[in-house]
Amino acid sequence: QIYPNLRHAVVTMYQTEGPRTFYRGLTPTLVAIFPYAGLQFFFYNILQQFSKWVMPAEAKNGANVKNLVCGSCAGVISKSLTYPLDVVKKRLQVGGFEHARAAFGQVRTYGGLLDCMRQIMREEGPGGFFKGLSPSLLKAAFSTGLIFFWYELFCGLLCAMKSPESTKRKEG
Start-end of the Solcar repeats (predicted)? Predict the structure, then answer.
């Protein structure tokens, strides 16, 4: 409702706030992405090991479902642990739209990462860092589950293509 198109938004934001406006939320994004990605792989590996312990006789036909479930769980756990940084990132990114948000209630302005964290803690308490967690967990479960599902599927296909048995079949 504020900008008629993307070009107008970019030009207006640049003219009114300068080039720094395009980098709002970059610090918490960079701070959050490394632990989030690392935690995804960490918990995926842990859950894979746990699934081998729970179901020692692994059936090949259930491996894809197991990868999907382990990936989904890893996504939910890692998103839950890093979500506070997501909240801070999003709040910093919407800065500058105060006049558009005024109709929705209280408008907050932040002076950076630490100021945003302090204000959330002071005004909303620890629960403020987890607002909107549920839809984010659903997204993390689906996306991470599918990422690991396809990753394992393609790794298996590549290994099968590379194995000596598959080369013998092609020659014969």
Answer: 1-50, 62-157
Look-up of token digits 């894809």: 64
Please report whether residue 87 resides in a domain: yes
- Among candidate residues 70, 33, 37, the one with its CA nearest the CA of residue 152: 70
97 lies in the same domain as 139 = no
Q: Do 121 and 55 sit in the same domain of this protein?
A: yes
Tokens found for residue 155: 């790794």
pLDDT for the residue 130: 96
In sequence order, the 6+-apart residues with CB closer than 8 A to the CB of 84 are 129, 130
Instruction: Using the predicted structure, report yes or no on whether residue 83 has a pLDDT greater than 60.
Output: yes
Q: Whole-model pTM? A: 0.74
Decide if pLDDT at 104 tops 60. yes
Identify the pLDDT of residue 58. Answer: 56
Q: Is 105 left (phi over 0), alpha (psi -120 to 50) or beta?
A: left
Query: Which amino acid is located at 111 in the chain?
Result: G
**Count of alpha carbons within 13 angstroms of residue 58, beta-carbon side:** 12
Residue 140 CA neighbour count, 13 Å, CB half:
23
* Whether 107 and 120 share a structural domain: yes
* Residue 41 to residue 144: CA distance in whole angstroms: 10
Contact indicator for 72, 142 with CB cutoff of 8 Å: yes
